[in-house]
Write a structure and sequence with these properties.
By secondary structure, the protein is of the alpha+beta class. It contains seven helices and 26 strands. The longest helix has 12 residues, at 131-142. The radius of gyration is 25 Å and the shape is elongated.
């Protein structure tokens, strides 16, 4: 293999595909990036047997071929090269010479034959969304994905498509996040994408109206994002029946300024640490919301005005879960719906139904103030 390419293009491609490379594997090739030169491009691939990211960049290919290079070493080298054209040449003993300006490296590569093949997605169901919409839907639900393996299927986000409506749903046992949008797809199907995959997809998605093509197979999914392709396994198992988990009615509704609620909770949370945990107490009554917290180092009280319709409610929450939900509304105002002190808080838009967040309450001790 013998190629020359632009340093900046190579750095961007290596940085992105490296995120799918296995940091520690019994198969040395999986700790590397596969380079494959043909025609007038060089393809790059990172893969850890669960998530794969591939791309290609323009190159002058004098001799076609392929090689696997240590992802960490190759990435460190190309990032520190001078801004110029990079030349990569591989000999028959897999010694890879990397030249850029006056800088020269010779590193040992691994034969491409040792690199596992990426799975193919055949008979896939197609789905198209704009980049900006998909990014928004992932961002507003990813925070509620479970981070432990007690139920592996909940470490991913459910994509539920029916009657032209796509819902993304994440749950972790303490909260639920749902984002809803109408899409131009008449098929009905559902699947669960690992949270790690969606996190990487979100980093690659541009903030524009570019169409993103998604192919969903029985066990894998492929996201086509510009010159990048992300392939991932799907999670198997029975996902929570989210429709049954959403309270059908409420006795109290409060329209709040999202920023005011966040600021108030953040202020009283100053007394909460990893060692000193305590719920944030919220009292919705008489046209205002009183927020307080008490730990062994002190007490904090705050209040802001908000119209309260229905019954007065006193309820407690984990401050982090409450803040995560409020911060991900992307709205100036939201409606908070409650049904007593022991039912989940429901946070919905002031208008429409584009998102729905549930936060489970924490039982309060009567002597807390």
């Amino acid at each position: 293999m013998k190629i020359t390419c632009d340093k900046q293009e190579l750095v961007a491609a290596v940085t992105n595909v490296q995120r799918a490379v296995s940091s520690k594997s019994s198969l040395p090739a999986l700790e590397g990036i596969l380079l494959k030169a043909s025609g007038d491009t060089v393809g790059l691939c990172g893969y850890d047997l669960e998530l794969g990211i591939t791309t290609s960049i323009s190159a002058t290919v004098e001799a076609e071929g392929d090689i696997v290079l240590s992802a960490k070493l190759f990435s460190d080298i190309v990032r520190r090269l001078p801004d110029s054209t990079v030349r990569i040449e591989v000999d028959e003993k897999f010694i890879t010479n990397i030249t850029c300006g006056v800088s020269e490296f010779a590193i040992v590569g691994i034969p491409a034959s040792e690199y596992p093949e990426l799975p193919s997605v055949s008979g896939a169901s197609p789905l198209e969304l704009t980049s900006a919409l998909l990014k928004s839907m992932i961002r507003q639900t990813l925070f509620a994905v479970a981070d432990n393996d007690s139920k592996p299927v909940h470490t991913g986000t459910l994509f539920d498509l029916s009657e032209g409506v796509l819902r993304l749903v994440s749950v972790d046992g303490y909260r639920l996040a749902m984002r809803t949008e109408r899409v131009a797809c008449t098929d009905d199907f559902s699947f669960v994408v690992p949270g790690k995959t969606l996190s990487e997809v979100m980093k690659l998605l541009p903030e524009d109206e570019e169409n993103i093509h998604i192919s969903v197979g029985r066990r894998h999914i492929v996201f086509e994002i510009g010159r990048y392709s992300v392939i991932s396994r799907l999670l198997e198992g029975e996902f929570l029946n989210y429709k049954a988990a959403i309270p059908p009615a409420h006795n109290t509704e409060v329209t709040v300024q999202t920023r005011s609620f966040i600021d108030s909770v953040e202020r009283v949370s100053l007394l909460i640490t990893d060692r000193l945990k305590s719920p944030v107490r919220c009292i919705f009554a008489d046209g205002e919301v009183k927020v307080s917290c008490a730990t062994s180092i002190g007490k904090a009280n705050d209040v802001f005005t908000a119209p309260v319709q229905g019954e007065n409610v006193e309820i407690g929450f984990n401050n982090r879960y409450l803040l995560d939900a409020l911060r991900n509304t992307d709205s100036d105002e939201v409606r908070v719906q409650l049904k007593g002190a022991l039912s989940p808080m429901k946070i919905v838009p002031r208008d429409g139904d584009s998102f729905l967040f549930l936060v489970l309450p924490v039982r309060l001790k009567s002597n807390e103030n």
